[in-house]
Task: inverse folding
């Protein structure tokens, strides 16, 4: 059964490809990207004010370093971004010598290690990978990924999750909770069937996995054993990624996209690309800061 939960529009500025939402509890600020248009959204939830920053490049993920700096995952590398003026400084390249790829899904582990996915710009088979940025160095974890998504972590930090949307598979990986690095090989947690595909995910305080089902306009909630527990409607077909937001982390921000929709499809899906807030009846966890060294 599809649940209809109280839902509001946080931003009606439609994203070509909305992705990478995260939330800074210390400032009550949500951040997310429009990958295709190179835009970074900043929304102060308490006041309702929203700013849009032009990045000059495609970017897809963000980790808070401290009150003054963020680490941005972009198409050609990782950049420190100063909040004061938006200045970007390259920390390390990421597939910068391969113009056929770009960054995609990303999330920070409790240890401060940043997991980052890359993919072909046209979703070429096996062109992407998943990396870990750990204490200032980047290393490849899993190669030959087509569309990396659903990067998230169990509350104890001992399990990592990721999906290859093209394969319709969500994987679970045993991790060292102190480093966020794998202790073993990925195992298949679930195989998605039916309408839509596995897109971005986030874990709540109970370890349940909240997944945006691209093409189905919903959020699916899975147990750590891979059992689907709930499905919540999202008022845009291409729901792309969730994040828990708000002072008590009880609301779910969900990005969406109008990518690959023609005029008729957009007319039939008028809120495509909008960013939504859902009353989740669950609690998230505060996102950890990324560690540079």
Result:
């Amino acid at each position: 059964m599809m649940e209809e939960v109280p839902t509001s529009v946080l931003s009606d500025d439609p994203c070509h490809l909305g992705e990478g939402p995260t939330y800074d509890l210390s400032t009550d600020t949500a951040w997310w990207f429009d990958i295709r248009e190179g835009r970074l959204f900043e929304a102060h939830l308490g006041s309702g004010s929203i700013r849009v920053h032009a990045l000059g490049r495609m970017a897809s993920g963000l980790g808070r370093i401290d009150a003054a700096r963020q680490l941005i995952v972009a198409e050609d590398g990782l950049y420190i971004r100063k909040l004061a003026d938006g200045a970007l400084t390259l920390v390390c390249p990421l597939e910068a010598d391969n113009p056929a790829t770009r960054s995609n899904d990303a999330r920070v582990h409790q240890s401060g290690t940043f997991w980052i996915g890359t993919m072909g710009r046209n979703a070429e088979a096996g062109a992407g990978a998943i990396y870990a940025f750990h204490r200032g160095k980047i290393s490849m974890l899993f190669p030959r990924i087509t569309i990396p998504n659903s990067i998230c972590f169990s509350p104890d930090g001992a399990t990592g999750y990721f999906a290859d949307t093209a394969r319709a598979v969500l994987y679970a990986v045993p991790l060292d909770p102190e480093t966020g690095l794998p202790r073993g090989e990925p195992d298949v947690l679930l195989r998605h069937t039916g309408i839509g595909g596995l897109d971005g995910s986030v874990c709540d305080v109970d370890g349940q996995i909240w997944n945006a089902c691209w093409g189905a306009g919903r959020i699916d909630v899975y147990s750590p054993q891979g059992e689907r527990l709930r499905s919540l409607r999202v008022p845009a077909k291409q729901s792309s990624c969730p994040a828990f937001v708000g002072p008590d982390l009880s609301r779910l921000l969900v990005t969406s996209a109008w990518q690959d929709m023609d005029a008729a499809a957009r007319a039939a899906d008028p809120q495509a690309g909008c960013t939504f807030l859902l009353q989740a009846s669950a609690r998230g966890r505060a996102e950890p800061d990324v560690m540079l060294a």
